[in-house]
Amino acid sequence: MRRITSSGGTRTGKHRHHRAVSGAPTGISGGVASIRRFFIALLLFLGVSFVSSIFYRAGWFTSPFDPMSWRQPQDLGGLIPTDDDSFDFISLDNEDIRLERVLKAASMRDKTVVLTTLNAAWARPGSVIDLFMESLRTGEETIFLLNHLVIVSLDMKAYKRCMAIHTHCFALTTEGVDFSGEKSFMSKGYLRMMWRRIDFLRVVLEKGYSFIFSDADIMWFRNPFPYFYPDADFQMACDHFTGDSSDLRNTANGGFGYVRSNNRTIEFYKFWYISRLNYPGFHDQDVLNYIKYDVLIADIGIDMRFLSTTYFGGICEPSRDFEKVCTMHANCCIGMRSKIHDLKVILEEWRYYLSLPPSLKRASVFSWRVPQNCSLDMLNQSRPPSNEIDWR
């Protein structure tokens, strides 16, 4: 190989190689340069590692091999949970932004969502929320509704459990109140939780979202949308159904309902919420059964309907037709253990029905084997001060 020298002549590759090997000054300077580059690279590596460790400990990012890496903010509901079970967390943005994000992610094309609320008492593994989710997975044409379900968590334990089992979770906070289930039924804390829920549903309507609200102690067996009244603004399940969907004598149950977002329903929820002041010591369901007769309801112009227990039954008044039933509610039931036991019986009955061939489904006469642990006779007894009571 020939190379042009600085003096304009040429030098062969052999001569160049000989000088590089035999020339001591060139070898020493090259070694020093290599060592210098090594130490500079080492210092840069250590510096970057130190800064990265600070960011990692601050929670800015996680390992790329961590399945939770780069989790989107909406999955966390805008929150970073702490290690304790209180709602002492860091809010990355305000509640309104968090809610809008979750609703948008969960909504159907027509801006409809399915909502349920959850506290620690119902969030334990094997408890009410697991049965609720299982019913949606095994019902007829109900599994798609899980994509549109938002679980509204009322305390930190419930929020953590929701994050472990579901996609769309929202932490609803109420300053100075612990909704983890330690409050007795009809206590001040319980009533505040119920009314907080009504005010929250009003906010959902104001954001333009219609919703099905369902208590978690309701088993879903069929897609309910074909069984709703197409033009009604507000439709709700009943403890007792008279046979007429417009009859105000129907005993409304606040645990299940379908509400369209419009000016009428927004005004109705405002009226419902403020009416708590006229009925101190009563929860939302009792107040609803009072105000449904109010002349202001007619002034608002809301079309209110009550859902037949044929389709939307409960322990208070079970559905008698397995071919039509959409939901079964563990209402008229006292005690968490009793409620869970009877919910499991209801789910087992439904599974047995599904296992039958079509001919037997049509030919057989079915009836629910509930109440069992949920005894209707207990409703005539005095209300014991237990934090597990649920009169819905």
TrEMBL record:
The organism's place on the tree of life at top rank: Eukaryota
Keywords: Cell wall biogenesis/degradation, Glycosyltransferase, Golgi apparatus, Membrane, Signal-anchor, Transferase, Transmembrane, Transmembrane helix
Entry's EC annotation: 2.4.2.-
Family, per entry: Belongs to the glycosyltransferase 77 family.
Cellular compartments annotated: Golgi apparatus membrane
Organism: Rhynchospora pubera
Protein name as catalogued: Glycosyltransferase
Segments forming a coiled coil: none
Domain Nucleotide-diphospho-sugar transferase: 145-343
Region (Disordered): 1-23
One Pfam short name: Nucleotid_trans
Lineage, broadest ranks: Eukaryota, Viridiplantae, Streptophyta, Embryophyta, Tracheophyta
InterPro entries on file: At1g28695/At4g15970-like (IPR044821), Nucl-diP-sugar_transferase (IPR005069), Nucleotide-diphossugar_trans (IPR029044)
Membrane topology of this protein: Single-pass type II membrane protein
Transmembrane segments: 38-56
